Automatic annotation (TrEMBL):
This is Metal-dependent hydrolase. It comes from the Eukaryota. It comes from Diploscapter pachys.
Length: 285
């Protein structure tokens, strides 16, 4: 069986889009549902600092990569910078609605601090694991329209745009990891990436759950019934966490590569949707 690699005809393109400028979204912008809105708001709060961490981690290992991987790293950085800009704007909407995200920010800082004082390869391993998380969510977000159905236009367009680009650059961090560990024995490479993924999964779920519960607390929603609704949203319907479980587990398999499943058709699907939402306003500007 041929080893899975990044497609040779892949072109990573930074799409400079802006979303929600001058528009006021509702407090519960996704179906007027506080649970669904908290899910995405809590995730968005993590992106600016998280994506800065991804960029720094990958950039440290850019020297000595092949010309093709160097180009892909540069395109990855451009995409992530734009994602940061747009989620800063989106997060301003969150705080404009009266939410205090101080605790969420502290959780992000604490998670990123776990790699401080460690070799740069540790940050790259964490980035590789977290990029797998983002692409799992991105694939499901586009493939299953129910996740964003009923959401306000500009918010929905933002998440589809972000998801499309996450799919497009999903192999960059992993290919950089393969380059950086090219002299490692196969077992060591597998063990380190697997251990880091387990630790990353723990911190990701704990952090995002705490973030969602904090935002819901500020909405006056607390207690076992709210916890049950949140669990049902994540694992029942629409069940994002349940639906990505198999893809998460694939990370531990020998021969894993993000492009073992070529899902670029989802990029085209997302673009047709968010451009329809954004372009009419751009034309009249």
């Amino acid at each position: 069986m041929a080893k899975a690699t990044t497609p040779h005809d892949l072109v990573i393109t930074a799409r400079d889009r802006r979303f929600g400028r001058g528009a006021r979204m509702g407090r519960w912008w996704l179906n007027d549902d506080p649970i669904a809105t908290a899910f995405y708001n809590a995730l968005s709060v993590t992106f600016p600092k998280g994506e800065g961490f991804f960029v720094d981690s990958v950039r440290r290992f850019r020297e000595g990569t092949s010309p093709r991987l160097t180009r892909e790293i540069n395109a990855f950085i451009k995409q992530e910078v734009l994602h940061t800009r747009e989620h800063v704007a989106f997060n301003r909407h969150v705080t404009d609605q009266g939410y205090d995200v101080t605790r969420l920010d502290r959780d992000v800082d604490a998670a990123l601090a776990l790699t401080k004082g460690r070799p740069p390869i540790a940050s790259l391993a964490a980035t590789t694991a977290l990029e797998h998380f983002t692409v799992m969510l991105a694939h499901e977000l586009i493939a299953n329209p129910r996740h964003l159905a009923g959401g306000e236009e500009q918010a929905r367009a933002l998440w589809l745009w972000h998801a499309a680009e996450e799919i497009e650059h999903k192999g960059v961090a992993y290919d950089t990891w393969l380059h950086a560990t090219r002299d490692w024995p196969r077992f060591r490479r597998w063990w380190v990436k697997s251990f880091v993924m387990l630790m990353t999964t723990k911190h990701f779920f704990v952090g995002r759950t705490r973030g969602m519960l904090e935002l819901l607390r500020q909405d006056g929603l607390t207690g076992p019934r709210v916890w049950a609704r949140l669990a049902w949203y994540a694992f029942g319907n629409p069940g994002m966490a349940r639906k990505v479980a198999g893809v998460w587990a694939a990370y531990f398999l020998p021969g894993f590569h993000p492009w073992k499943h070529d899902d670029r058709e989802l990029i085209r699907l997302a673009e047709s949707d968010y451009e329809a939402a954004v372009m009419p306003k751009a034309v009249t500007a």
